[in-house]
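INTERNAL AUDIT FORM
Audit reference: QA-55
Scope: verify that the stored structure record matches its stored sequence.
Auditor: D.O.
Record contents follow.
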Amino acid sequence: MDVAHTRRLLIFSLTPAPSQAFLSSLLGSADGSLPDQAGSSYILTLKTAYYTAAITVWLDEVQDVTDWRTAWLEEEAKEVLDVLGGVIILFEKPASDAEYARITRCLEVVREVVSKGCGEDWDGVSLAVATPQTSVPLLEISDEDWEDKCTDFGFEYVEFKEGKPKERNNYGERLGMDRVKEALAANDWSGQVDLSDVSDGEWTGFEVEAAEVERDMAGLKMTMASEDDDEQDEVDKLEINMQKLLAVKEMSEGLPEPERKRLAKRAVNELMKEM
């Protein structure tokens, strides 16, 4: 399934020149010549077993944290925040206490902006990506401490090291760029629904979500049916999940439209996780 209307990914860099290695690795640019100044935009193509999406990526620079916060909480920024599907804070590992305090403050402010601008129930992906310090680090901060600090502000900590693909930790979890791409691929990037192909009355909330999922499942079932008989169990699981979605749809009848939409989104996201 191609996602026609996608939400956006914002990368906030805490340095004037964000890591070319990170941007090139994320976006698949081999020559390392990507524009890296604030205001640059890119296209990130995500392909999974369930969808293909072309995500618009915006790059912004955080210079003065207070000024940045003020600008992003103004009315003019609302149209950007309305289509926000993911946030990456990109920073070099600190070489001083002052740099560490600035990173911590940025984590706090970005979370505040997202919460106020997108709502407390915003469900996008939030990553804090550390790149190596260009000078000799003067601070020794463990990965566990970084993880705890980032988690405090709703971010997942990821350490990016150039030229180290396919890394995993002791639990078999992906690290580095592999983890960044995995987290982005698992996110829900669907944005405004295109209703041009809906003709039978007004569809909102669950009707649209259920129709899209039902169509996707039908395609999956047709594909699976053409495979070996061993795939039948997977087809059965899809049918069970569809029944769960329709059951929640019935439960939502009579609720206000905003509540129905929230319930629909939560149900579809849970279903996709099971898939």
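Auditor finding: record pair retrieved intact. Residues 97-118 form the longest helix (22 residues).
Action required: none
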